[in-house]
């Protein structure tokens, strides 16, 4: 996977280079400080991924994309989260906040690999086995959530509960309750088990939001979550795991 780094900050480009060294199937094919240099690089050679800053002298990252007839897959790298919605509107694969975390970069690269494989690109190199597994999402990660016409860019640390609602999953954060087309099993496979706990067949909780625990029927537990009125009943089997997880 050949990557073009586009960022007016030399230090930011150097840090991305350092992080990308952890991925054997990735090579940095070029660097650009602004939109003009990026266009020249893109005209001169083929890239599989554009790691693109938004705020640069002259044209922004969005303006660069708008000027291109064709562009490789794009992952934005920026210090601001205000442009997340627009980033996904221009079909960016991911949106990484600076300082970029290796786990988030790994997840973004996995999205690129998946798209390359779906398109049948002959340039895909087989990743190391560890890289083939998407990185777990921690509380510090941010996710894009869309429900109807409303959109959010949510830090997972602020999500207190995931709950099945029909064929969708409802996400509880602040006073919002959007629905997403994901199953709990899909979410459980991506969420860090040290922070997100499958309480029962219907719910996954953020352990940081547990405000109270009380014994319940048949050796099960009942949890009260702060920040809302939710009360979660932990199944008997999961109550055993809950005690083991949080006991000294």
Describe it for me?
Keywords: Phosphoprotein. This is Response regulator transcription factor. The modification 4-aspartylphosphate is found at residue 53. Residues 145-248 form the HTH LytTR-type domain. It holds the Pfam family Response_reg. With 248 residues, this protein is of the alpha/beta class. The protein folds into 2 domains: 2-132, Response regulator (Rossmann fold, 3-Layer(aba) Sandwich); 142-246, OB fold (Dihydrolipoamide Acetyltransferase, E2P), CATH 2.40.50. The protein has 7 helices and 15 strands. It has helices spanning 10-20, 35-44, 61-67, 84-89, 102-118, 184-190, 236-246; strands at residues 2-6, 27-32, 49-52, 74-78, 94-97, 142-147, 150-155, 159-165, 168-173, 179-180, 196-198, 203-206, 210-215, 221-225, 231-234. The strands form 4 sheets. It has a 5-stranded parallel β-sheet with strand order 2-1-3-4-5, with helices on both faces. A 5-stranded antiparallel β-sheet has the order 10-9-8-12-11, with no helix packed on it. Strands 13-14-15 form a 3-stranded antiparallel β-sheet. Strand 9 (168-173) and strand 10 form a beta hairpin. Residues 121-133 have low confidence and may be disordered.
């Amino acid at each position: 996977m050949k990557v073009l780094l586009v960022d007016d900050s030399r230090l930011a480009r150097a840090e991305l280079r350092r992080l990308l060294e952890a991925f054997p199937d990735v090579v940095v094919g070029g660097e650009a400080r602004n939109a003009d240099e990026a266009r020249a690089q893109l005209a001169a050679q083929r890239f599989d991924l554009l790691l693109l800053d938004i705020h640069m002298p002259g044209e922004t990252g969005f303006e660069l994309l708008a000027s291109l007839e064709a562009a490789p897959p794009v992952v934005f790298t920026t210090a601001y989260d205000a442009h997340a919605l627009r980033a996904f509107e221009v079909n960016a694969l991911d949106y990484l906040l600076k300082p970029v975390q290796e786990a988030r970069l790994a997840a973004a690269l996995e999205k690129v690999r998946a798209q390359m494989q779906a398109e049948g690109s002959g340039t895909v190199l087989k990743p190391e086995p560890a890289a083939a597994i998407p990185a777990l999402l921690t509380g510090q990660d941010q996710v894009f959530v869309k429900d109807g016409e409303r959109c959010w860019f949510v830090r997972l640390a602020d999500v207190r509960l995931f709950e099945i609602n029909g064929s969708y999953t409802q996400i509880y954060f602040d006073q919002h309750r959007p629905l997403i087309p994901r199953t709990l099993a899909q979410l459980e496979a991506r969420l860090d088990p040290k922070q997100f706990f499958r309480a029962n067949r219907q719910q996954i909780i953020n352990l940081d939001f547990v405000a109270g625990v009380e014994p319940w029927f048949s050796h099960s537990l009942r949890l009260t979550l702060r920040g809302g009125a939710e009360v979660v009943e932990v199944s008997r089997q999961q109550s055993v795991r809950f005690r083991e997880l949080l006991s000294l």
